Amino acid sequence: EDVPSQTFDNKDYFCGKETFPVYESIFTEEGETIRKIAIETEKPPQIEIHVWTIKKGILHHFYVEKLSKREFEGLPYFKLITRTTLSQWKIFSEGEAQISQMCESRVCRTELEDLVKVLYLEKSEKGHC
Predict the structure, then answer these.
(1) H or E segment at 95?
(2) Where does the Chordin-like protein 1/2 C-terminal domain start and stop, copy by copy (predicted)?
(3) What are phi and psi of 125, to 5 degrees?
């Protein structure tokens, strides 16, 4: 299911907080889904990719890899899905660690979907920053 895309050109949209691009790649092959969520950071300038291997809804393998921006640019299939703050990314990473343990023995489709939604920033009302 597609989440509506956000526009990224308005600083007020995120209350002036620095945001970072988040990319996603989903690849299915032989009954296995490989889902990758990547964030591009400036300090250090790199791409952090979180890779989930899912078989029949069960998270079988999870790991994190780091690439240079140049290496990342050569990878196919990634699309920009949102921008997020470092605090939201931290929530995502912590939730991911919990889910990776919890979902080794049971189906966790909704938990993984909900975790990705954490990265989408809510549009703030003016004056509520």
Answers:
(1) helix 86-102
(2) 10-129
(3) -75, 145
How far apart (Å, rounded) are the C-alpha atoms in residues 15 and 112? 27
Entry pTM: 0.79
Distance CA 80, CA 21 (A): 7
CB 31 within 8 A of CB 20: no
Which positions ≥6 away from 129 have C-beta within 8 Å? 15, 16
Tokens of 46: 């790199």
- In the prediction, which pLDDT does 113 show? 84
Dihedral sign from CA coordinates of 121, 122, 127, 129: negative
Distance from C-alpha of 21 to C-alpha of 18, rounded to nearest angstrom: 10
